[in-house]
Amino acid sequence: MESKIEVISTVKIQHSPDLYKVVDALNRTLKEKDLMFGLALDQEDKNKAIFTIYRT
Q: 10 Å Cβ neighbour count for 23?
């Protein structure tokens, strides 16, 4: 069985040390709604983070 992950939205935001806590809370709370959230440092600007919402 193949699972398909669809990117719903991506936004570049100011990086904050506690940002991962928000992403973790969203993932724990909304996983039963088939939503997943990701956070990555922007490779070009380390002061920015890329927040992505996925449908699983």
A: 16
